[in-house]
Amino acid sequence: MNRVLIASPIKQKPAILMEFLACLQALDKTDLSIEYCFIDDHDEPSPILQQFAQDTPNVSILRGTVKSQLYHCTEQTHCWQEDIVWKVAGYKDYFIKLARDKKVDFLFLVDSDLALHPQTVSHLVNLKKAIVSEVYWTKWEQAFPPLPQVWAGGQYRLHEFQADKPLSPEQIANGQQDFLRKLHCPGTYKVGGLGACTLLSKVALEADISFSKIYNLDLTGEDRHFCVRAAVLGLDLHADTCYPPYHIYRESELPGLTAHKIKYDYFQNKPNPRLTLAMVVRNEAGRYLEEVLTHAARYIDQAVILDDASEDDTVEICKRCLSAIPHRIVINQQPGFHNEIALRKQLWDMAAETQPEWILVLDADEVFDDEFISLVPHLLANPDADCYHFRLYDMWSDSCYREDPFWQAHKHYRPFLLRYQSGYQYHWQETPLHCGRLPLNSGNLREVRCQVRVKHWGWARPADRLDKYYRYKKLDPAAAYGIKAQYLSILDPKPNLIRWQPESLEEKTRT
User: b vs e for 46-77, b when ≥16 Cβ sit within 10 Å of the residue's Cβ?
Assistant: First the structure.
């Protein structure tokens, strides 16, 4: 049982405060022992807070001790005065000291204008990070696009950079787009700054962490000083995007809360989306099929397998690896590998017949990094995504992937995972080779880039490379569907190889 202290300094409009507290009461407390501490900074004691304390166990309410003018808050934006910033910093440092004294396992610092998803705290606790914030999005000014309360570094820099490599305005814009795009995909990411909805573990609490001002920094805001101090102490900062809170930044935004709760299933009444694996196989015995299916069986709900007239034990391997999962295997009597588009369409129709919700198309020599397993439920539940794109790494040995002008698939994102829509008119690239694993127009749907990597083992053995070289030479002698120089490069005796490094999702800080 983890002990969590939820703490917040509060000077809030009543309607917003009521929603904040209602969400605290609705939090999932499974395996958690939760206590609350609020600093009531209103001019007079808040009856709403007092009522919450009567209705909820383990609530402490303290009165603010330092009086200052209310920060300027309008329907346009919020303007924080310097004295208020450091007053709040002092309150937060008090909460840190209190958490240490109570010897709790976690301190959750949360602003009182956030409506939290019920799973927020339990999810953040289970991540086992020193410091992690749940990401929310806000129009800081009415004319601005929604932006996150986490950032890459500095005051509010939203792009990655290297000090020895100056960036052009175009590169900065692309970097900002990459950073924001990444945060729209459910996952956990290392960042340079965060605040307002932050869980501190015992590791962070036992360090000399603080919100107090660092005198020789010209950064504005107590969160910046906290984040710099955390980095100096060796405490990584993480941002999680699986359960986005609703930020009631303006009172006029209150009516949008109900729609947000429905969209992100605050009421937890939606069944978990189901994932269908679709795969074409042919003569895969003794290669990678067993590893691929065993891994996939840990996160899929059903599978459809199209066997292209295998002459070995491929079908038996499929049956064995998928024995605990609903599956359908169709065996073609005549091989069709010379006409890939026909096989891809046949497989797609097989998957569509199962009335799928999501379809994942993998080849028999492709496998995701392990973090994909725990991430799948969040990807499928994301209401803002219809198609997930991933990077595929062409493994050239057990420990290295290839990178050169002809082999850089890992630098691009391609679709693998699609929300099936029965009324959508899917169209294919009608070529007998290199036609794509998904319909050509899947990119017209709401696409999201996912940082999880895909290992492609199809090139890892010299014998496989030789087989593919002769296959392409036979099926595409004029390189009408591919690149002749790339075909020739398959047999390069000294390709440029890069060692595969273990890389968890949260360690991937740039796209």
Answer: bebbeebeeeeeebebeebeeeeeeeebeeeb
Summarised one tens digit per residue, pLDDT across range 104-154 is 999 999 999 999 999 999 999 999 999 999 999 999 988 889 999 999 999
Question: What is the C-alpha R_g of the chain?
Answer: 26
Can you point out the beta strands (E) in 122-178?
A: 131-134, 137-138, 147-148
**Confidence (pLDDT) at 65:** 79
CB 339 within 8 A of CB 434: no
Question: What single letter denotes the amino acid at residue 199?
Answer: L
Enter the tokens of residue 356: 């799928």
- Paired sense of beta strands 32-40 and 2-10, if any: parallel
Torsion over CA: 407, 410, 411, 412 (sign): positive
Question: Residue type for 431, please?
Answer: T
| Mean pLDDT value across the chain | 93
User: Does the structure show a pLDDT above 90 at 511?
Assistant: no
Q: Give mean pLDDT, residues 83-99.
A: 94
Collapsing DSSP to helix, strand or coil, 134 comes out as strand
Output the pLDDT for position 451: 95
d(Cα 82, Cα 508) in Å, to the nearest integer? 35
Nearest to 94 by CA among 222, 220, 191, 189: 222
Q: How long is the chain?
A: 511
- Report the relative pairing of strands 137-138 and 59-63 from DSSP bridges: unpaired
For residue 243, what are the contacts with CB-CB under 8 A and spacing of at least 6?
116, 117, 119, 120, 123, 134, 264
CA–CA gap between residue 144 and residue 138 (Å, rounded)? 9
Assess contact for 252 and 280: CB atoms under 8 A.
no
pTM for the whole structure:
0.91
Q: Which amino acid is at 3?
A: R
Question: Degrees (nearest 5) of the Cα angle 261, 264, 269?
Answer: 85
